[in-house]
Amino acid sequence: MMNEVEKMKALSDETRFRIMRILAKADTEVCACEIMDVLKRPQYSISKSFGILVSAGLINERREGKMMMYCLKKDSEFNLKAFDMLLTVKCASNESIKNDVPRIKKRLSMREKGRCVISCCPDL
Q1: Contact between residue 27 and residue 40 where contact means Cβ atoms under 8 Å apart
Q2: Which spans in 13-110 are helix H?
Q3: Biggest alpha carbon distance in the chain?
Q4: Taken in order 64, 69, 73, 74, is the CA torsion positive or negative?
Q5: Phi and psi for 30 in degrees, rounded to 5?
Q6: Which of 18, 22, 31 is nearest to 65 (CA)?
Q7: How large is the C-alpha radius of gyration of the chain?
């Protein structure tokens, strides 16, 4: 039960909620810089949020050269239900959250051969 409580606590922050929703909607590994571009938040803020989500057991991380890649950790029924909730919630009243999905799709379209090739793109 304690692990599930920690997972819910991790989702209770807006930045972490948005990261998780972006990962769920992207349905692929996403580079930290891609998340930074979508959220328009500094690296230290995004890194701190990723650390909490990894510690809570909600996401996996792996290094690919200089880049850190993240994806949902689909290893438990609790996680799968949480991810399903993130996919179905509309967030229509929050403009920032509502625009995350089109921005991540645009950012992912900039990949070459399925890989992130630019570190940051401030024009998103």
Answers
A1: no
A2: 14-26, 32-39, 43-55, 77-88, 95-108
A3: 43
A4: negative
A5: -130, 140
A6: 31
A7: 14
Q: Write down the domain spans for the chain.
A: 2-108
Contact 42, 36 (CB under 8 A): yes
What's the distance, CA 83 to chain centroid?
11
Residue pLDDT, tens place only, 12-48 = 999 999 999 999 999 899 999 999 999 999 889 999 9
**Beta-carbon count within 10 A of 97 CB:** 18
Q: Which fold has domain 2-108?
A: Arc Repressor Mutant, subunit A (1.10.10)
Please give the structure tokens belonging to residue 34: 């891609």
Please tell me the distance from the alpha carbon of residue 17 to that of residue 63, in angstroms, as a whole number: 22
- Token pair of 8 as six digits: 């819910």
DSSP assigned state of 59: E
Whether 121 has a pLDDT exceeding 80, the answer reads no
**Rounded to an integer, what distance in angstroms lies between the CA atom of residue 108 and that of residue 115?**
9
The number of residues making up the chain comes to 124
